[in-house]
């Protein structure tokens, strides 16, 4: 008797799923017999709870499981990894205090694939860290090490670039908004962010060649946390194509930069450092590796800064009283400057209210939802054991809108950061914490404040669609780009 082919496939799939379920069940039971694992569920065979994690809002995904299993820790399986999610301010403190003791950095496999094209395809694990070059014994990720060590993100380096941040924001506001009554905030925020990155990280004075790839950077940002299905139409496929396009342009920039360096051009950017730096054997970094690493540096600060600028424009546009306070602060500062004089380091310390507004924007729309770590050695937390090799995920969503830590958490209220009203320790961590706190925190602060200074000096605005839908969870995006009505001042 002939058996229908599709029926045979269906039966085969059911059988495979059944076998996998039995295998996973037995293995999990075996683990549980030895140690008290965190409560929770690994979800479906193979994919675990990846779909719920990627396509459900982070605060919902985490919040539901905190209520169901434990407010301190729960287990899940996402992006192919058994993962313990550590929650709340105590969880943040525990994680940040045990970097490189219990945990090390971990990149999800999609991220490894996108930024490590120079490595052997058979190797998906991160390479061992090179010998430390300073008194700091902590190994660092490739990109973080590249930008920390030469001091590019230290105050003295940033203060030299601050004037460029000021002039660039002013220049791009004029180029894209001058003479217009209606504009979109999100596209300009992305252009400003990429232009600053090109000038600061790459030393490129004609950043249009990178800025025109803005859509590719969007695709990469989404693809970093996606299902690794590399077929046309998928998020990961688009991210791969985008990475290839950006990599091609970066390789051209690297070749040009090498020629400029050979002719004695100054080296004030991270790209130049990556080109000339050598390992302990005297070997320089290959161009393909430089391209991937510098792409990682740019992407790391791309969506975070652009998203914060965009939602700041939304909240300020919807709250005229807050706008007036920001403008008063910025105009007082502007009045103390000579005509044509650019912002200086001391000026940024006077923008206290403006920074409070930025902080509140990041609380309601976190620039970083969370990150992964790999467990170096088995540990116990909140009475539960997490085995070596598991991944740990921390997320700001366990505290940012929790009424236990923030009064009226849904209200946009910059005054909550006034002196004496600051959030309790480890409840507000938009840039992470501990040794692995985001190295670009100060860069992001200055870039956003420089934009705020210029935009409120020249414009007042209204949000045309206060109920505009926000799409995306790992990268929140106003569906229409946040249309605004401008009023020139």
From TrEMBL:
Protein name: OLC1v1014530C2
Superkingdom in the source lineage: Eukaryota
Feature: compositional bias, Pro residues: 125-134
Keywords for the protein's UniProt record, in alphabetical order: Heme, Iron, Membrane, Metal-binding, Monooxygenase, Oxidoreductase, Transmembrane, Transmembrane helix
Gene Ontology CC entries for this record: membrane
Primary location class: membrane
Gene3D superfamilies, sorted: Cytochrome P450
Family annotation (Pfam families): p450
SUPFAM superfamilies, per database record: Cytochrome P450
Membrane topology qualifier: Single-pass membrane protein
Segments passing through the bilayer: 6-25
Cofactor(s) it depends on: heme
Classification via InterPro entries: Cyt_P450, Cyt_P450_CS, Cyt_P450_E_grp-I, Cyt_P450_sf
Protein's cellular compartments: Membrane
GO biological process: sterol metabolic process
Sequence segments annotated as region (Disordered): 117-149
GO molecular function, one term: heme binding
């Amino acid at each position: 008797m002939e058996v229908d082919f599709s029926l045979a496939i269906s039966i085969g799939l059911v059988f495979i799923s059944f076998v996998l379920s039995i295998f996973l069940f037995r293995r999990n039971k075996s683990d549980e017999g030895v140690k008290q694992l965190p409560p929770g569920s690994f979800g479906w065979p193979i994919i675990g709870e990846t779909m719920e994690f990627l396509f459900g809002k982070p605060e919902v995904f985490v919040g539901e499981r905190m209520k169901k299993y434990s407010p301190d820790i729960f287990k899940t399986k996402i992006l192919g990894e058994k993962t313990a999610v550590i929650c709340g301010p105590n969880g943040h403190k525990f994680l940040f205090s045990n970097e490189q003791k219990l945990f090390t950095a971990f990149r999800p496999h999609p991220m490894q694939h996108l930024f490590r094209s120079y490595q052997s395809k058979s190797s998906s694990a991160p390479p061992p860290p090179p010998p430390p070059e300073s008194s700091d014994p902590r190994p660092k990720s490739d990109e973080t090490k590249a930008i920390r060590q030469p001091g590019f993100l230290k105050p003295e380096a940033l203060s030299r670039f601050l004037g460029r941040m000021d002039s660039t924001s002013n220049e791009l506001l004029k180029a894209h908004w001058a003479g217009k009554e209606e504009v979109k905030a999100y596209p300009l925020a992305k252009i400003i962010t990429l232009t600053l990155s090109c000038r600061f990280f790459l030393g490129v004075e004609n950043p249009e060649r990178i800025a025109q790839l803005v859509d590719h950077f969007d695709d990469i940002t989404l693809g970093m946390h996606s299902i690794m299905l590399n077929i046309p139409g998928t998020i990961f496929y688009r991210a791969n194509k985008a990475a290839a396009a950006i990599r091609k342009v970066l390789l051209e920039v690297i070749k040009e930069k090498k020629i400029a360096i050979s002719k004695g051009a100054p080296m004030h950017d991270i790209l130049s450092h990556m080109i000339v730096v050598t390992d302990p054997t005297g070997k320089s970094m290959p161009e393909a590796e430089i391209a991937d690493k510098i792409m990682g540096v740019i992407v790391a600060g791309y969506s975070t800064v652009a998203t914060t600028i965009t939602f700041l424009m939304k909240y300020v546009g919807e709250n005229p009283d807050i706008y007036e306070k920001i403008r008063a602060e910025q105009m007082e500062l502007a009045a103390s400057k000579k005509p044509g004089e650019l912002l200086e380091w001391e000026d940024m310390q006077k923008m206290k209210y403006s920074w409070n507004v930025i902080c509140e924007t990041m609380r309601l729309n976190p620039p970083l939802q969370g990150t992964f770590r790999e467990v170096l050695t088995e540990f116990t937390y909140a009475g539960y054991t997490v085995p070596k090799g598991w991944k740990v995920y921390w997320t700001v969503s366990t505290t940012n809108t929790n009424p236990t830590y923030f009064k009226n958490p849904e209200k946009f209220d910059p005054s909550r950061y006034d002196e004496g009203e600051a959030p309790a320790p480890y409840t507000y961590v938009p840039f992470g914490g501990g040794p692995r706190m985001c190295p670009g925190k100060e860069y992001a602060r200055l870039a956003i404040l420089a934009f705020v200074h210029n935009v409120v000096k020249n414009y007042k605005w209204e949000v045309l669609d206060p109920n505009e839908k926000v799409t995306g969870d790992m990268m929140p995006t106003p569906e229409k780009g946040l249309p605004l009505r401008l009023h020139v001042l």
